[in-house]
Amino acid sequence: MAEAHQAVAFQFTVTPEGVDFQLSREVLKHIYLSVIRSWKKRLIRIKNGILRGVYPGSPTSWLVVVMATAGSSYYNVDISMGLVYYIQRWLPEGRPYRTPYTRTLFSMAIFSTGVWMMGIFFFRQTLKLLLSYHGWMFELHGQTSHLTRVWAYLESVEHLLDDEQYYRMETLAKEFEEKTAPRLQKYLVLKSWWATNYVSDWWEEYVYLRGRNPIVVNSNYYVMDLVLVKNTDVQAARLGNAVHAMITYRRKLDREEIKPVMALGLVPMCSYQMERMFNTTRIPGKDTDVLQHLPDSRHVAVYHKGRFFKVWLYEGSRLLKPRDLEMQFQRILDDPSPPQPGEERLAALTAGGRVEWAQARQAFFSSGKNKAALDAIERAAFFVALDEESHHYDPEDEASLSLYGKALLHGNCYNRWFDKSFTLISFKNGQLGLNTEHAWADAPIIGHLWEFVLGTDSFHLGYTETGHCLGKPNPVLPPPQRLQWDIPKQCQAVIESSYQVAKALADDVELYCFQFLPFGKGLIKKCRTSPDAFVQIALQLAHFRDRGKFCLTYEASMTRMFREGRTETVRSCTRESTAFVQAMVQGRHLNEDLQRLFRKAAEKHQNMYRLAMTGAGIDRHLFCLYVVSKYLGVESPFLAEVLSEPWRLSTSQIAQFQIRMFDPNKYPKHLGAGGGFGPVADDGYGVSYMIAGENTIFFHVSSKFSSSETNAQRFGNQIRQALLDIANLFQVPKADG
After folding, report:
1. Cα separations (Å) of 725 from 140, 408, 523, 528, 653?
2. Residue 448 bears catalytic tag
3. Rounded distance, CA 212 to CA 226, Å?
4. Are 152 and 618 in contact (CB under 8 A)?
5. Could you say which of 108, 306, 478, 483 would form a disulfide bridge with 373 (CB–CB 3.0 to 4.6 Å)?
6. Which of residues 507, 525, 543 is at a domain's end?
7. Which is catalytic among the residues 410, 438, 448, 468?
8. CA 190, CA 205: separation in Å to the nearest integer?
9. Domain for residue 333, yes or no?
């Protein structure tokens, strides 16, 4: 077979005439092309490194300074004020400075370089100061709160506690502020001197990697496809375009050609999290997991009908075209071979407890064919799941969206590799989705990739009339490689145990996804308020109607205006929002009074969101103080209580249109439905929402069947009603369309 010949670079035999080499030209050609590709990538990175190193200067600006210096001397004007002559005196005698003319040119070049570098330093410091200023995010410039984070925390819980509970917390806070906090804070200040970001590494380690519970449902989240349009029903074809688009995006990342997302089109957001998007796997450990990131990977790992395959993405140095990838995936779909013993549910190991997975990995996957096969998965660019069932959103069947979300969130607990940075899921009808591991990055990062993939698939790659990828496949490509396993009975027992743990988690998740059609961003803006604040206050009203009480509420906010920033918490259940909700529930207030209370709550929420984005939030600072206290062995009842409080309402808004791949006004049907996650508390709700356009909002509500106090569909209906009730306060006519 052709691939067998290409597996050996050269052969040699000992003959009476000496050593006889038989070189394989084909393999040497691929080695040559691989070297060329590697050096091209390296040279591009060197070039980008140079340009980045002298930013905001450039080689062109250096040349301009040199020419200006030389030109001034031609007209007998010494703009260096004698420095060129001074440098010339200090140049050593002899080569390469043998003539006065040469010595003058070198002196001018040295002077010009110094001026150029001083200019770069000055502009960098100026830019740093400008980007460090966050007052532009606030309507009232220069008016900052003098409350410490500790007292801001007390403000955030005062309306959730009775008088006795609040007095106790106030006492603990005072004791902490006076006795413990100053010592802990000194260590955080010290860390901030040498760490790029004083929060992010501890956040990644202690919140994600040290968690020993299963990551399925508890940590991983999902992202949906475009739900109102369909490009093709051919499963392999849709996957061929998507994978090609993803590797194209990776190539842009490698060449540093991805433009950063800009806040308000002005301030760049840190793109550090994108570095581990591809070629990354979470490796289980007994005490803590680690993220394994490789500089490159030339294949993807694929799961179908209980079998694992390795699919090469390149032929030599050339990325496979979508039609070639379609052919490779179709070969897997057509492969009739059965799973090997223990292979079908193998991925359940990534869905069970982390300690059990770490022990099984060490015991059964550290050598032989099992290690080789596992390496093929863990060293893949990403994981691909070819599902045998179909899912899509049917607007006439509301349950279809929830079933689609459940399939993406956990599948059957063994048809996703939950440890990969992300699993690309392909359903039988061509619909796609993602299941994403959370430790390496937050949702807006994978959203950036997903927008690129969907836009490239829809508007740049396209399909034939029969739904196949464009072009003709190369039939001589070697078929996908089937991974080989030797899984003993003891390992199969561990796999089954992990599967049962994961299945219990998955079966307990109630997911209710729905499209809210009465209005979207357009009508909310007519109410002259922030769309996010509008939805968050509606969630407070819905939750009070659902549970008869308020609860600590988590809303994620990005902190990517700081280097390596991740998230901060917006505590969106405020005194102002509870005052509005109580007035709404009482039903005795005039519309004007309710509008005033609502606007006050919305302004409070917007201000808290801005504070969180600009590093003035509460929770990450308290979290880091808690970590320091644990390192020092210092007991803090205040911090222990703060960090143990349950978030019974965990919420997140999903970013959309981070990159402009197409005009949403021209293509209003090209909308993704966002994504979702599991509930954080056993008796709480997880709510993810996407304000998907001028006239619609998608919601993903999760809870646990095992809780008698929660019901995802009931809460979803309360959200619907709360949105309508608040909109009716302003009596704004519904937008057309």
Report:
1. 30, 32, 13, 16, 21
2. no
3. 34
4. yes
5. 483
6. 507
7. 438
8. 19
9. yes
